Protein 1
Amino acid sequence: MGYPTKVQLIARKKGADQYYINFPTAVAEAMDLQKGETIEWFVEDKANIIAHRPAVPPNPVTVKKNLRRS
C-alpha cells in the first residue's frame, strides 16, 4: 500500500521557488526518522525518486532468521 502525498510549491516573488514533499507519519515512524536528519534525493526516472538516508541508526532489536528447507 502506498501513501499518497501532495507536492507543495512555495512561489516567491524574489528568489527561487521551493517544492516540498512531506513524509506521512506512518512512513517516518516506520523508518525511525528524527528531526533534522539529512535525506538525499535521487531521480531514477520521471516516475520514480529515491530517498537515501546516508546515516542509518542501528536496529533496536536484532532479528535472527531461520531458513528451513523441506
Protein 2
Amino acid sequence: MATVPVTDNTFETEVVKSDVPVVVDFWAEWCGPCRQIGPALEELAKEYGDKVKIVKVNVDENPVSPARLGVRGIPALFLFKDGQVVSNKTGAAPKATLQSWIDSAL
C-alpha cells in the first residue's frame, strides 16, 4: 500500500474514523525536508501494508486540518490511533528513526 493523499474533506473518514493506526504527513511542494522524507514514508507504507495507513496532507491546498491540530512547521507528522493523536513530531528524520517512532506509538 502506498501513501494516500488526504484532503480537509476526507480527513475525518480517512484518519479519525480509520480502523487502523494512521500516520499523517503534513507537507508542501516547496518544502525541501518534506520532499526528503517522502520516499522513506512511501517505503514504510509498503512495509507496514494494511497494519498502518500513511497519508499525506498538502497544507497549501488543505489549510483546515493542519490548523485544527496546531501545525506550525512542516513536515509535521501525527500518529492517530482510535481517532486520537497518540504522538507527533516535526522535521525530517531518516527512515529508521521514522520507523522506530511509529513502532513505539503502536
